[in-house]
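Q: We require from you a single protein entry containing the residue sequence and its fold in token form, and nothing else.
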Amino acid sequence: MEERTISSNQQHRIAIIGCGALGSEIVFLLAQHEINFMRLVDRDFLEKADRGSHCLYKEHNFLEGMPKAIALKELCEEKAASVKIEAIVEDVNRTNILSLLEDIDLVIDAVNNRFTHQLINEACVNLKRPLLVSWIDGSHGAAMTVIPGKTSCLNCILESKEAMPDISLNKTKSPLPQTISAIAEAQVFRAIEILKNAKQKFEQRLLVIDGKNSARNTIDITKSKIQPNCAVCNNRQFRRLDGKIGSAHIHPIGENSLQIIPFTPRKIDLPTLAFNLSEKGDVLVNDFLLIFKKPPYELVIFPSGRTLVRGTTDSGIAMDLVKKFLVSGK
């Protein structure tokens, strides 16, 4: 892959993966700068339970079950009409991540699970794209800059006991607003600096935020010191990208839920499916998804056939529900 050259007068293209509490604030701040294009990617939708942490969204977004990427796009276009924004409601996985990022100059990772963090890191190293990684768990957060071939990558610090802070890459606690704001501001500042001068030397330090105590610290993550022989950025072993780890057809997502991704994407007629299911349970449908509630289970169905099954971690039960209500519509 050829490295994309960035100059101060170029049409900058940024991809933000994850439009939750942290990602939405990063996007909103970026929209206030002269960013020409932003691609927002998120697989999830807004629910009433998100109101406390997703403060930028509007009330009707929660009531209508709007996909986060779509709602954020509409919000930003109201504030910054000159910015071109593309919203993609998709699960980021090894089958689509390269196509999502290949025409992008800078990637911002704001997801909340370890596997996707590592997958994004592998894709950016493979494509030679600058990457800003950030994660928050409760009151603590961290952020780092990855410039492939020049700095440490995420895998470098994961393989280093000294460099990796004690902050889970899987969200286990609700993020603190102060921590969200501090990490978002830091990442936006770094993004603008990278786009202005891609050839500058970046300080190789991991930012660590403690929002509860209004404290911040940095950790030296100079590549030569923490991991001179990384499996990913030195040896180019992309085990998640190559499908050797994870990317299963069905896998856990969130608490007591499973996600099922069809091997071959389908084209689901959501209004027709909603009509067929309306007598079987409670249905909420919009242009982007269908929510079907049949206690104790809930199915969230997307046009591609991707389905979230809530109320079980048993793959057999989940598949039976999909076959019964999605495939047969009975």
About this structure: The chain has two domains: 13-226, 250-327. Residues 5-9 have pLDDT under 50 and may be disordered. The radius of gyration is 20 Å.
